[in-house]
């Protein structure tokens, strides 16, 4: 018996791989139209279902756009599309025994870096947007659903200061993966007030142009939130 496992790929996977290679290697450029379905069927010697599955896969990768009545068109992949592909994988990792700890470490590295960057580089306009986000936090205290949105928006403003679309996409992905955690933590009495106080400290450090203080304030905020979540999770597990 062979010691090697041969992976058999479907026809649609083979078609998708070849088209993806043409896009990534530049033989098909942004805004170029792909051949029609019939032409692709003839080119690859496959049926319509395989072609359609291949095109759907490329669309999911963010490499092409498909509009009814027109040929598929090559587009530039967006950071949002890349992060969306990671979403399912990340949720699976979070379900593992150490998943939450790994996620917390990754989140801390990202958020702390943003806080340090903001302390060095935030413009007056950026600071004004942070203050507005903080005001929304204060106004939302006592309204769990509204505060959860305002909490997310505060961190979104912080991510936007870098003016990097990948930062924005990572923030959106983190927000999705944090949704259940935020909802659980905010059920605790005065947790919205504690988060608002933490955001106030973070902004004060950023306004003072003190990266070390901004890092320390963000770390305290994240550690407290994570600690509260893990305590609640253990309590629920013990009660079940």
UniProtKB/TrEMBL annotation:
Listed GO MF terms: DNA binding; DNA-binding transcription factor activity
Any Pfam family the entry gives: FCD
Record-annotated HTH gntR-type domain positions: 9-78
Name of the gene: nanR
Species of provenance: Vreelandella sedimenti
Keywords, ordered alphabetically: DNA-binding, Transcription, Transcription regulation
Protein name in the entry: Transcriptional regulator NanR
Cross-referenced InterPro entries: GntR_C, TF_FadR/GntR_C, Tscrpt_reg_HTH_GntR, WH-like_DNA-bd_sf, WH_DNA-bd_sf
Record's keyword annotation contains Lipid metabolism: no
């Amino acid at each position: 018996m062979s010691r090697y496992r041969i992976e058999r790929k479907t026809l649609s996977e083979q078609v998708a791989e070849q088209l993806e290679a043409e896009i990534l290697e530049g033989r098909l450029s942004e805004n170029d139209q792909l051949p029609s379905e019939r032409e692709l069927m003839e080119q690859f010697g496959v049926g319509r279902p395989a072609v359609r599955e291949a095109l759907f896969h490329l669309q999911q990768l963010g490499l092409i756009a498909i509009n009814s009545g027109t040929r598929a068109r090559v587009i530039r992949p967006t950071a949002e599309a890349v992060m969306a592909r990671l979403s399912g994988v990340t949720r699976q990792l979070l379900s593992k025994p150490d998943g939450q700890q790994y996620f917390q470490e990754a989140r801390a590295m990202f958020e702390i870096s943003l806080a340090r960057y903001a302390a060095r580089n935030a413009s007056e306009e950026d600071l004004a947007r942070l203050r507005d986000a903080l005001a929304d936090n204060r106004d939302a205290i006592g309204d769990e659903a509204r505060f959860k949105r305002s909490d997310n928006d505060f961190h979104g403003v912080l991510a936007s200061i870098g003016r990097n679309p990948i930062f924005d996409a990572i923030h959106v992905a983190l927000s999705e993966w944090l949704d259940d955690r935020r909802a659980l933590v905010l059920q605790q009495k005065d947790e919205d007030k504690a988060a608002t106080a933490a955001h106030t400290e973070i902004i004060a450090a950023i306004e003072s142009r003190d990266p070390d203080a901004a890092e320390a304030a963000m770390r305290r905020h994240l550690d407290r939130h994570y600690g509260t979540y893990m305590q609640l999770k253990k309590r629920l597990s013990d009660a079940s």
